């Protein structure tokens, strides 16, 4: 019986055009969640989903260490704003949240941020 493939190999097997040296480990709260590669203003992300890698394009600013605090603060502020308006989490909440987050970035941080629906085809809920 062979050993299961490493998470990086799962990404490399699924996306053969990606050179291994381009992939950077993606961590959230100190835990690995996948890999990413920066491509100008965009970041191609490969999130671990079982034995598969889920690809999504995101705004590369999300991986800029200089903006880490601004992103964390803006996310909290967007949540507070929505809660204050009585918006509850349910199917479709992400769209309302992303619109509010985009507004917070623009008005409070002078950051133009692209949400997942701006950069990816498909349905998010």
Shape: globular
- The N- to C-terminal Cα distance equals 39 Å
Topology as a string of helices (H) and strands (E) = HEEEEHHH
> How many helix segments?
4
Amount of helix? 25-40%
> DSSP strand (E) fraction?
15-25%
Structural class of the secondary structure composition? alpha+beta
Radius of gyration: 16 Å
Please tally the β strands and state the result: 4
- How are strands sequenced across the largest beta sheet? 1-2-3-4
Q: Which helices and strands occur, and which strands form pairs?
A:
Layout: H1 7-14, E1 24-28, E2 31-39, E3 42-49, E4 52-59, H2 68-84, H3 93-109, H4 116-119
Antiparallel strand pairs: 1-2, 2-3, 3-4
Architecture overview:
With 125 residues, this protein is of the alpha+beta class. The chain is built from four helices and four strands, in the order αββββααα. Helices cover 37% and strands 24% of the residues. A four-stranded antiparallel β-sheet has the order 1-2-3-4. The termini are far apart.
Summarize the structure.
By secondary structure, the chain is α+β, with helices and mostly antiparallel strands. The protein has helices at residues 7-14, 68-84, 93-109, 116-119; strands spanning 24-28, 31-39, 42-49, 52-59.
